[in-house]
């Protein structure tokens, strides 16, 4: 009897059921908080024609970028793709369908998808190319556009810790889109750094309740850094200074 | 003389007030953090989910799980909080951020801004910029006044795809501090040593010049 135990022991099992032309929602911001090994497993499986919903699309040789290079992505919904040369090339050549979506709208689309809200009005994008083809409506004298929610056949999520029931805790800014992605997948697969026994996580400190999670796997992570920026060690921390 | 990137940031920093929550965009806006007066408390919001951004880390402090919206490694200031992307944009869209500073390719006399795409040439995406300009009331755009070929970026009508419509009221360029109202640009200040005629010449949209225009003070 597995009960609420969501833990699986292989990546093959973690991504079982993913087939061609499915929609995958991915957590992560840049390369921070991405499900590195679940992406690698999708590459290994060779699943084609995927629609990927993610704030960014990795870099050429890491993160979701490897699925682009491998021609597994048919369409991507993202807010910023500037770090990826192959992305720009495929998009300009018309080989890849791209739906550029404002970052807050993207987050809200996932949140709404997970919460059973089919669409919402937002001022973001009014009067811009994003508004084309969308219903516009005025509330209290201000214009808004109607944005539809997103759900995925799969969601791939990276968390810091999970218990066996799939309750999740994220770490620092690796949280980003991950809780939203987790809520919006029909099958939500979570990769974590540590799996603890049920009862070890403080219920008050759980970011994503296990009800949203279907599978949990423990991975090891490279955690590549895109922009390594530092200050000299002898320099005092000045308030607000970057 | 035209302002350097640092001087633009320095002038923007003078607009900060004690207790402000501020979102700084990528590029020149990021530099504003270096010029926050020590007499005031300001908290920096990074739209990837951090309120209370600190300085860059030392080599020993680097943490791959802690970055800003420009994907740079950062630290957390004392009193910082972390949240997911929907919460982050609830702050932005809900009008809770006191000041937003961001860059642009073009602005026009109607407060329109183009900053995310040059068709056929540069397609990187809008990131959080569309949410920021739609959600904030107090926005300062930082940009160069004209291209290096002398083509104005302060226009009658933006030519590039818009990031936001009718949402920009203040622009700080390397030559001038300008307010946008009533469908016109209004010259508030000029960079030290830059004459009004030069600013007028490099401003395509109608520029209202009222009285003596003061030089920026640093």
UniProtKB/TrEMBL annotation, chain A:
Keyword rRNA-binding attached: no
Stored Pfam families: CoA_trans (PF01144)
UniProt-listed InterPro entries: 3-oxoacid_CoA-transf_A, CoA_trans_fam_I, NagB/RpiA_transferase-like
Entry keyword set: Transferase
Keyword Disulfide bond: no
Parts of the chain that traverse the membrane: none
MF annotations from Gene Ontology: CoA-transferase activity
NCBIfam families: pcaI_scoA_fam (TIGR02429)
Entries under PANTHER family matching the protein: ACETATE COA-TRANSFERASE SUBUNIT ALPHA (PTHR13707:SF60), KETOACID-COENZYME A TRANSFERASE (PTHR13707)
Protein's name in the database: CoA transferase subunit A
Organism encoding this protein: Colwellia ponticola
Taxonomic lineage: Bacteria, Pseudomonadati, Pseudomonadota, Gammaproteobacteria, Alteromonadales
Automatic annotation (TrEMBL), chain B:
Pfam families membership: CoA_trans
Record's keyword annotation contains Transferase: yes
Superkingdom of the organism of origin: Bacteria
InterPro entries per the UniProt record, alphabetical: 3-oxoacid_CoA-transf_B (IPR012791), CoA_trans_fam_I (IPR004165), CoA_transf_AS (IPR004164), NagB/RpiA_transferase-like (IPR037171)
Keyword Cytoplasm among record annotations: no
Regions annotated as coiled coil: none
Family, as annotated: Belongs to the 3-oxoacid CoA-transferase subunit B family.
PANTHER family: KETOACID-COENZYME A TRANSFERASE, SUCCINYL-COA:3-KETOACID COENZYME A TRANSFERASE SUBUNIT B-RELATED
Protein known as: CoA transferase subunit B
Source species of the chain: Colwellia ponticola
